[in-house]
């Protein structure tokens, strides 16, 4: 009798647990689901290079449904009164190992490189760590998307455009956008950045280049022949390059390497090429302009590539590319690039004093980046029908002295701008009775 009573009691408890769990799931889904949001009287920086203007924005079903300078009389779950706020599209970090590396000094936390010289079939997407401690610090500063990029020798793998806020990589992915090739250099720089030594010719350059050409040519033959008798995963991955469905990113810095990259792309007739790095592009800008290859610049606040260059040369590069009508984006690639990703808008803002307007600087990390990555129909600007990925700041988002995010909206959901670093900051303010 006692056993029967316990069994009935257990069944009742399990039933109540199921009911509570279902209620919790329903509440969670409702609370965090995409809302209808009305943003009123915001100063809009649309990411297209246009002058700012004041308007109202309506968000429905995770997309921007309406932008109107006139008052909107719409029913909304949430109304954000943004009279003193600036509205920006989400920032996009190109060419970055964010989510693939946690600490540079701890090798096991790095998962962006594999062995071998030709690995187009390797995907960064499945290695993306949505639980990274770095991601919340980047997300809270408005960088809502990143290009998860492989590193390596020659052909390193396939990158992906990913959200910096997600539960897992399946939820995070926007698209897998292209394959990354690291161009062998004709020159070898000795020493290190603090004590650079002389530059020597790379004696193995021609052998390295022939090895690359051989792989690319064989993969193109594999694509053209449509021979399915022998499956090759590396050549299969290259098919989307030859079809023109994905970008072929060529990483090259020195002027001679940029020239070699363009010659290689023209010789093999690679459909969609993007030049990455390009520290000495100012020396060959006319040739890049001729072929109209898009460019992803490396971090512009670094040291000049040569001791003979003027100190401000890197800051001037975006302005030069703008004047020559070359599609470009600014990235934060370089030392400690994962943790530095949060500073992407401020690095872009540094170009404003060197020939670029504020709105064009903003465009370099929003719509321009989205165009290069092939996701400009979804994100990159504030336009009707695009994904509602927005940030609201009290001041100029490209200026660290005024930038203060108040709201983050990603796919129609409002998120907090808080992260564990802010919690620690507040904790020690309270501990020592310091007034902020």
SSE order and pairing:
Elements: H1 2-32, E1 37-44, E2 53-60, E3 63-68, E4 78-81, E5 86-89, E6 91-96, H2 135-139, E7 143-148, E8 154-163, H3 169-172, E9 173-182, E10 187-191, E11 196-201, H4 205-225, H5 233-242, E12 247-252, H6 255-268, E13 273-277, H7 285-291, E14 295-297, H8 313-323, E15 328-330, H9 337-340, H10 344-349, H11 358-363, H12 367-373, E16 389-393, E17 405-410, E18 413-415, H13 420-431
Parallel strand pairs: 1-4, 1-5, 6-7, 9-12, 12-13, 13-14, 14-15
Antiparallel strand pairs: 1-2, 2-3, 5-16, 7-8, 8-9, 10-11, 16-17, 17-18
Specify the biggest β-sheet: 8 strands, mixed
Number of helices: 13
Strand content: 15-25%
In total, the number of strands is 18
What would the CATH topology of the largest domain be? TIM Barrel
Task: Quickly count the domains.
Answer: 2
Question: How would you name the oligomeric state of the polypeptide chains in this document?
Answer: single chain
Outline the low-pLDDT stretches: 1-5, 23-32
Shape: globular
